[in-house]
Amino acid sequence: MTRPFEGISVGEELPHLRRVVSPDDVRAYAEAGGDRNPLHLDDAFARGAGFDGVIAHGMFTMGHMAACVVAWAEDPAAVTAISANFRATVPMGQEIVAGGRVRALDPETNTATLELWVSSERGGETDWPIKRGEATVRLD
Amino acid sequence: MRAVNPQAQGTTYPDVEFVVDPSRVAAFRSVFGQEAGIPPTFLTAAEFTVLPRVIDDPRLDLDFSRVLHGSQEFELARPLREGETLVVRARIDSIKVRAGTAFVVIAMELFDDGGELVARTRSTMMEREA
Questions:
Q1: Which end of chain B is more exposed for a tag (fewer CB within 10 A), N or C?
Q2: Does B130 touch chain A if contact means CB atoms closer than 8 Å?
Q3: Looking at beta carbons, which residues of chain B come within 8 Å of A83?
Q4: What is the ipTM of this complex?
Q5: What is the DSSP-derived secondary structure letter of residue A3?
Q6: Helix, strand, or coil (residue B127)
Q7: Which domains does chain B carry?
Q8: Burial (Cβ within 10 Å: 0-12, 13-18, ≥19) of residue A36
């Protein structure tokens, strides 16, 4: 059941969704998503490309962001659009946090526009693997 | 120094079929801890039926070892249905080079067996300077 439109207000925050990214997660993602780029699977290759080791797929980070939206909307089919710009890479063992807020509501179509982000703390600094994500969600 | 060939802008690729395979959907769901339905970013699996062809297109001349995913957009006209077969139509929408980085935008449209548009995707691939 999709979350009801009534009772949602502009500015409402989505509950944060946290996850520590492991090599097993990224391998499972590579199989399910079909992206077997060695940058995500082979440490030696990733080092050759200038990283400290393999990094998560951008689509892994975006999938995590989408999971945050689905948890809030209570229905994956409610999401009619979702987008992201990838701003920082995510190494293995890194915790990522997805969040967002309701930016606009359209009562004619029971649609909410969400602004979304994925952050990560590294060495006392905040990175933004996704800084300005967006989704459109059709509620009940 | 080499970069992608800007003349490849506008290239269209032959249609490819994509089955919304329930076991693949289940694998995708399990990666993201979802219990039911089709995760919205599952559309990426459809893109990867065509992307190898784009990546290996000698006319585009992309060096995939230097490629990072810049941005991604998905738009659904209706939810996907498990088990259905979709047709994926891909084209290179634009190629721009800024400060040594090439931005290649690949746009795809997915149609159902009735010819109705089901979804659109846009991926920006960034080829970093060598």
A1: N
A2: no
A3: 71-74
A4: 0.95
A5: P
A6: strand
A7: 6-127 (3.10.129.10)
A8: middle
Residue A14 contacts B, CB cutoff 8 Å: no
What is the pTM for the complete model shown?
0.96
Sheet strands (E) in chain B? 16-19, 67-76, 85-98, 101-111, 117-127
Dihedral, CA atoms, B11, B12, B13, B14, nearest 10 degrees?
-150
**What CATH number is attached to the domain comprising A69?**
3.10.129.10
Does B69 contact A at CB distance below 8 Å? Answer: yes
Q: How far apart are CA B42 and CA B31, in angstroms?
A: 11
A137: which strand partners? A79, A112
Q: Is residue A39 part of a domain?
A: no
Q: Is residue A35 part of a domain?
A: no
Cα dihedral angle (B128, A38, B59, B11), rounded to 10 degrees?
-90
Distance from CA of A14 to the nearest CA of B (A): 17
The answer to whether A57 contacts chain B (CB < 8 Å) is: yes
Q: How far is A50 from chain B (nearest CA, A)?
A: 10
Number of domains chain A is built from? 1
The answer as to whether A30 is a domain residue is no
Would residue A101 count as lying in a domain? Answer: yes
Q: Side-chain half-sphere of B2: how many Cα atoms within 13 Å?
A: 8
